[in-house]
Amino acid sequence: MLDAQGKVLLPGPSVLGYRAEDFVGRSAFELAHPDDRPRLLEALQWILANPEASRQVEYRARHAGGSWRWLEVVGRNLLHDPVVAGIVVNFRDVTARRIAERRMAAQYAVTHILAESSGMQDIVPRVLAALGETLGYGYGAFWTADRRLGLIRRLESWRAAATPEPLNIERACEFKWSGGRGLLGTVWAFAKPIWIPDLQRVEFTRAPLARADGLQSALLFPILEGSEVMGVVEFFSGETRPSDPDLLRTMEVAAGQIGQFLERRSLEEQLRFAQKLESLGVLAGGIAHDFNNLLTGIMGNISLAVETLPPQHVSRDYLKDALEGTEGAASLTRQLLAYAGKGKFVVERVDLSALARGMRALVERSIPKNAGLAFDLAQDLPAVEGDPSQLQQVILNLILNGAEAIPERSHGAVTIRTGRQQADADYLRGALGGPPGPGEYVYFEVRDTGTGMEPQVLARIFDPFFTTKFTGRGLGLAAVLGIVRGHRGFLKVESLPGQGSEFRVLFPAAGKPLCASEEETFVQPVPAAGATDRGTILVVDDEDLVRRTAAHTLEHYGYRVLSVSDGIEAVERFAAQPDAIDLVLLDHTMPGMSGEETLRELQRIHPQVKVLLSSGYNEDEATQRFAGHNLAGFLQKPYVASYLADAVRAVLAVK
Prior knowledge:
Low-confidence stretches: 470-474, 516-532
Helix content: 25-40%
CATH class of the largest domain: Alpha Beta
Strand content: 15-25%
Shape: elongated
CATH architecture of the largest domain: 3-Layer(aba) Sandwich
CATH topology of the largest domain: Rossmann fold
Number of domains: 4
Oligomer: single chain
Number of strands: 22
Strand order of the largest sheet: 6-5-4-9-8-7
Mean pLDDT: 82
Largest sheet: 6 strands, antiparallel
């Protein structure tokens, strides 16, 4: 019971750990939290002004053990009653209920935020504010780790309105990575939360700063993406807080929700990116195919004109220059096919270290003078299966990209490494490419000390024709990714503004290291001329220009040519005189009856028919549907006249 000044007249049973009789004559508000005293005084004035009326208030009071407890009090003014002559106060400890309400509010806030958010940058500040406010903390922060640079960085922080600023603890925003050491390192290493009831009793790197800010307790918990820690959330309070297992479980649930959300978003983003790459790959492959058809007509006719003109003719040099230009255009279509993942032509067992070592002189001549090269190439690497020329393009493009990332008026370094590693599902989850799963891989890594990339730039570097440079086609990295995908490999990129970039390409290991003889460069033999230089050729192609070019070329070399524009007509012409046609030059992609269907019908008429398949796609892509059909050969478009003649001569030479 209290008097009109709020002093204790008659104590009740203690709920705060003190002796009840010690409070007689003392203010009932002296144990109240400073932030709650104004509300208590306002409630007292209201009760004094309203005799017989009751008023309920909840406030925090200091427990004898040093913690704050929530009390629910109901006061009634009976000062006018001569029997009572005081303010009757009933109270009870509602700390457990308030904590439960806070836990529910925190969990609801996280669920609500995740339902509305689109990504990491949106989630982090909102989750920090929601959890900090609902759980009554004064300061919070979210930390991420850059294992490549060995650093832990604060990504975002939050401060309660009542928390003074600036905080000393905010000065510490970056640490050297040391898994298992310090608060942040311990949470990262063991993926478990840490509760510190009283900061006065523990020592860690930032403890003096926290104590100087008046912070007295802390809670840290990890955010997991799959089984990997991708962040740590920490909260500090201006009051000591005894360990609360229920709250820890709530935080683990919230962290699990955030981690699942981020993992789902990451998978969705990877799926969207893969779909975008696939659609762009289909587009790029289609453009390359059609462009190769056009180039076939241009290159074939120009090369045929060069061959038919007298050696001293004034036009020969002009035509040779034009032919060189079309060969440059053909190189561009090969890059488009590489981006589409359809550019693997000649598969061999390749030693990546030997391949990179052999390119050193070329690379050193190609990069800017302000970029230094350092090679760290592993010995006795397992071989990988791939096209050496395509893999060389990957190596060259990545090194040039790293060198060009170094600002012109500064000096930097590009480090090239090779090695072997076991890659598990977690490691490959964020990588581009595939589809092989966990296993042994051989990697090629390029790390530069350049300017690094902002997240929005990093998200677009593999888009075709996207470039941050003033010049260039912007196909370099797009082609790299296409080649990696075509070789069933993976590509991982890490980059931060001002910290440089790291590109790591992983290819499935294909067995034991190569012996010396296998490392030699093989040169494709030029088909030898056969005994028969003449015969009848059936040219089947839906493109008029390609069909005419092939016919003119073959006629120039002495062959008799029959030309048709589709598969149906080809089958009809062949059925009319199967023994008179020595070879069929067949286009891969045609409307109506496809090249595959046409071949099947031709072989039904004459099982030993010789068919030379020609396509704007590469050989692997074009011939995979013809497996088991006994093709006589393959001719890649575009081609010059002599290539066509050599291919036909080689097929006819086989008896």
